[in-house]
Records
---
Amino acid sequence: MENQKIEDKPVVFETETISKDELYELIYNHETASVDPRFVHRNKGGVFHYSPTENYMGNPFFTIVKENRVIVGLAELEVDPDQEGVLWLKSISVDSTRKGEGISTKVLDEVFSFAKKNGLKLKPSSYTPDGNDRVKHQIERLSKQYGVEIVE
């Protein structure tokens, strides 16, 4: 029997920033009338911070990172209703099986690209100090790289 080398499929990452409705269409299965279980509330076993029923004060956007068409990272963004031209970075979520692979960096890179293209400033969330500490250096680096102002 001859050893055959099985070629690995190349990993293809795609990033984009989409509306709440566009995200819902990506994660909703019309055949089963259910949402991808990775997107249910975390206390029900979900892996991403996302709530299709959340009431938003402003206009929500979601930055997603897909690997071979499967969402592996997500940022929840909302236009700040109290500060004109400010995009609030509410949360960043990475599939727990993919932590440590640089997915959050890809998410943040797309967030800053979106803010730059749309002339927006960014306001990082202050929900969790631990989460802020983990991405603070990336936010500072990308702010300089993209020329996007960070506001408190």
Note: The first helix runs from residue 20 to 27.
---
Amino acid sequence: MRTAMKRATMGLALAAITGTGIGVGTASASTNQGTGGQSGSQGGSGADSRAAGGQNGSGGNNEGSGGNNEGSGGNNEGSGGNNEGSGGRTGDLYAATNAITGNAIRTFHRGLDGRLTLVGDTPTGGTGSGTFESSANGVVLGGFAGESSPNNLIGAEEFLFAVNTGSNSVSVFRTRGDYLDLVGTTATGNHPLSVTVSRGRVYVLNGGTTNGTGVPSSITGYRLSHSGNLTPIPNSTRPVSGGAISGATQVSFNPAGNVLVVTEKQSNTISSYTVGSDGVANGPIANQNAAGSVGPFGFTYTRSGKLLTAQNFGGAAGQGGAASFNVAKNGTLTPITPTTVKNGQSDTCWFVLTDNQRFGFLTNAQSNDISSYTVGPNGELTLLQGDAAHTDEVFPAVGPSILPGDLTLSRDSRYLYARNVMDGDVSAYAVGNDGHLTQLQRLDNALPNGAIGVAGS
């Protein structure tokens, strides 16, 4: 099923951060598509080159005249079409509405300047829970080989994966610019919270219930075809280490695709599993958290396989931070940072890493802000800014926290996006060469407050 989503005037109020203050207006844009549909050639020597030095540098997303040059019959935006030279590429931001009446992927078009325009919703074929899920990576962008967002490990953007927490299923879409084609929806275990893909294998974290507590959580595996269809892997379901009190949060493959990791914030455990050529997970191994660390939550990897985790300390005031680990082939973890590198903020939960592997960004749910870290070549973490950016128009928060949640970066890491859980705002930031953030835009009430996940291209 293909759902055509045109960028039209959607009546979405936004607040754009400008040099003179916060201006409130209406997001409006249009797509003039020729009769040839979205056709053209994407390639050339400059196309989406993600070198290790590529954060706004010569090794990054440096696209020459051959990169994403779409012909006159294709996605012709304005007078020049989507013909992007050295200025980079446009992209999209995806999040799941998680609605009880029918889950959908809400798509936003990303312009060359990093600002977002609402495109529309594409049904997943399943339903959501309609409530906040204390989880990470419920929406993942990637391909047969692996993930590109929120964990950018190999750069493929062929498929979008999304969990349906209410109907116990996972949906797969093929991405086509601002369009999504639903490939299919496949049954999972009870209350799926997180999904991951690597080398033609997909694993889903089944929370058992909201926030992964009260009922034992598990993981289940599937084979992914090149067309995007999922087939269950026999005998692949495995428990997590913490049982019914795990608070299981995220499942993700390591870059090599031979180890799965699940963070368990309530049992303060990180489960790991080895994965063989048959795709079956073996384990779990119950790895203890780093000394003095509490509440492993969202995580990401360096491309060399170092595990970088957010530590939320149960939301205790001023105790949030991050910790990193080596991951052995047998699944055992050893701390790189002997203890949590704290940021002075509260409830640190979600973690993303720039393409050049230099900067990590984490949201602090109870203090309504983002912290930044530098990441060393061996996974060492050093605090850059405890309060690197605010995620709400009111700071410090007055009354209940608005709970900044999932984070994602654009494909070239020039832009960072944060989704607020309670008010549905989505904020956009420019990422400087030194890792500092500058707010570009805030889309007010862009998502329902029960939305889940965010991924971007």
Note: The chain has one domain: 91-456.
---
Amino acid sequence: MKPASVLRKTPKDGRGGTRPSSPSQKQPRLDDGLKVDLQEAREQLALLRSDLEVAERVAQEALRNLDLCREESAGLYDFAPNAYVTLDRTGVIRDANVAAADLLGEDRHKLRDTLFTRFVAKKDRPACFRHLGRCRKSRYPARIATDLNLCLGDRPCEVHMLSVPDPSPHQSLYRTALVDISERRCAERALQDSESRYRLLFEANPCPMYIFDESTLNVLDVNAAAQHLYGSRARPFSR
């Protein structure tokens, strides 16, 4: 049996046709519950838009701060008093600061895309390649150091090479400090020569000589002439 709403007769006009509904006849309305759901959806959408706007402003501010940090970091790198180069996995110079250009005696822009081993003394190039190999094999950020002699024309230069991984996510780069230790090496060799000459003068002196502690007056050492003069009695004094 059909519902009552279907059995309800449709008004007809005088010619037997269906009479059009009058404008005043009520149309079906949306359910009140559906209206509430739509209103809640609109409110949630407005909240989401507001959250997105706030997140966008925060992201823009973070990008501006990141750009400022990059500029400051670039300035610190470029004008640092120590020489810095950025090497890739094969030892090609990807970047160099002003101090590195001065140390290597080349224009800073010409250093880019140049093999670093070009400036390394031939006998130390295997050590340089081993240094790069250790950088590539290092699983954790670690400082890797090597002492190298550079070939810079007529000027001898020995550097302490210290590398750490660059945080670049796109390729393997190594920030490398080049510390000139030439003067320190010269001072160490001069000290060794001085000690050798002093030891030679002490041991070869024909006069008996003693070295003693000024504070305790304990004899620290005697030369060959003193041992010859006093025989075996000279050595116990140095104990």
Note: The chain has a mean pLDDT of 77.
---
Amino acid sequence: MGVALIAPTGLAGEPLRLLQFDATITEAFSRTSQLTQFPAEDGSPLSDHANLKPLSFTMRGWVSDHPILVLPLENARASVPGGNPRRRALDAFDELNRIMDNKILLELVTGFGKFVNIHLESIRANKDKTSGRILDATLTFKELIVASTETVTLPTPVQASRSGKTDLGRQVAGPPTSPDGTESTAVADSLLSKLAGLAGLL
């Protein structure tokens, strides 16, 4: 089976549009992972230091006005949009430009497998005296990596209660007082007795 491009029409309830090449000349699949250039902590997981790059796919395929039998994929329209079998090549070329002009993400079916979220990055169409009524196209695709997000609700911070604090007002330094409110003379008597003892030694 040749390479097939499955694209949405943009209309609700409409079947998918399918562009299926009659023949695939070449297919090239490329995928890379970039490793950090900075030192990594010993024992840390590799996933923290390696970044997967989008896959890329390049192909060269033909669409002819006189193809062999090509069976369309399930849940899709005819193999090439358009109703005139004598202009299949031009219809396929128009469909490729429609996909690029509208920036449509594709589902790509290839000999390497099926891939989703694929962007048509470049189109190169060739025609010469030997190609006749054939679209000879070289296409480059690149994957769009889609990341999912998650919303997390943080707990409401609890403020410390201030009800246990007592406002003591402004305190004025003064001599200690006894529980009945009178000034205590214990400290003063102790100081006087020490002074008297020192005076007797002089």
Note: The mean pLDDT is 76.
